[in-house]
């Protein structure tokens, strides 16, 4: 294509360049710092859990229960989790290299989804990421539909901590920073959207309501 054509297309706003992803308006900043690198691929700090009642499962074991590798059971359904409740949210940070955009997916979120006859039992959450802790970008999450793009959908496949940071072996739900236009992120936020996926509210009741966070791994670069 000639330069003249490119200039014309650019002027018309129809170049092939991906459009800028807009940050999420009104998303609150992180509360603290995350300075202690635990020295593994997994998230280092719990910044804030804002669970929605009546969720309480795993909260007495925070923060450790959501740090470190996922706890595979071989069939999904880990109990090494903290439940967010429907509409609950949690913010976590990386102290070391953080999440770095390389080829393909860069960060993996492990919930306790388990396989069912028609896919998996999902309690979805939307994933947001930030590098500065103030400006947040959200991955599209079709919570009201098949939960495509959400976390909390794919059962954990990793059998050990090494596998859990390798996208091809980890299971869980993996996300590519390039999809939201970031090259690096230090913070990850999960916002439960279970009620949109299960509108009858059945999975919003009890201590284990909503999304159940097991672990988060940054893919080493
Ligand atoms: Ca990437
Ligand atoms: Ca679950």
Describe this structure in words.
By secondary structure, the protein is mainly beta. The protein has one domain: Jelly Rolls, CATH 2.60.120. Helices cover 8% and strands 23% of the residues. The strands form 5 sheets. The protein has a 5-stranded antiparallel beta sheet with strand order 1-3-12-8-9, with no helix packed on it. A 3-stranded antiparallel beta sheet has the order 10-5-14, with no helix packed on it. The chain has a two-stranded antiparallel ribbon with strand order 2-13. It is globular and about 40 Å long. The model has no long low-confidence stretch (mean pLDDT 92). The site of one calcium ion (CA) has 5 residues, from loops.
Question: How far is it from the N-terminal to the C-terminal residue, by CA?
Answer: 36 Å
> Which series of helices and strands comes N to C?
HEEEEEEEEEHEEEHEE
How many domains in all? 1
Fold-level CATH name = Jelly Rolls
- The CATH first-level class comes to Mainly Beta
Largest sheet: 5 strands, antiparallel
What low-confidence regions span 5 or more consecutive residues with pLDDT below 50?
A: none
Q: Count of helices?
A: 3
From the spread of the alpha carbons, the general shape counts as globular
Task: Give the spatial strand order of the biggest sheet.
Answer: 1-3-12-8-9
Radius of gyration: 18 Å
What amount of the residues lies in strands?
15-25%
Secondary-structure class: mainly beta
Ligands bound here?
A: calcium ion
**Share of helical residues:** under 10%
* pLDDT averaged residue by residue: 92
CATH architectural designation:
Sandwich
Number of strands: 14
């Amino acid at each position: 294509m000639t330069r003249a054509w490119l200039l014309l297309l650019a002027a018309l706003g129809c170049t092939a360049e991906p459009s800028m992803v807009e940050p999420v308006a009104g998303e609150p900043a992180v509360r603290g710092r995350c300075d202690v690198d635990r020295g593994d691929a997994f998230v280092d700090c719990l910044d804030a859990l804002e669970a929605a009642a009546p969720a309480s499962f795993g909260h007495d074991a925070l923060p450790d229960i959501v740090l470190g590798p996922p706890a595979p059971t071989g069939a999904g359904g880990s109990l090494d989790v903290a439940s967010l409740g429907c509409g609950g949210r949690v913010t976590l940070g990386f102290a070391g290299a953080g999440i770095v955009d390389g080829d393909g997916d860069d960060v993996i979120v492990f919930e306790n989804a388990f396989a069912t006859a028609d896919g998996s039992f999902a309690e979805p959450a939307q994933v947001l990421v930030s590098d500065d802790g103030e400006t947040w970008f959200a991955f599209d999450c079709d919570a009201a539909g098949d939960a495509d793009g959400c976390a909390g959908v794919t059962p954990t496949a990793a059998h050990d901590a090494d596998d859990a940071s390798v996208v091809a072996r980890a299971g869980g739900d993996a996300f590519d920073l390039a999809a939201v236009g970031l090259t690096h992120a230090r913070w990850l936020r999960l916002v439960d959207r279970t009620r949109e996926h299960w509108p009858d509210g059945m999975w919003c009741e009890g201590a284990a309501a909503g999304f159940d966070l097991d672990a988060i791994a940054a893919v080493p670069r």
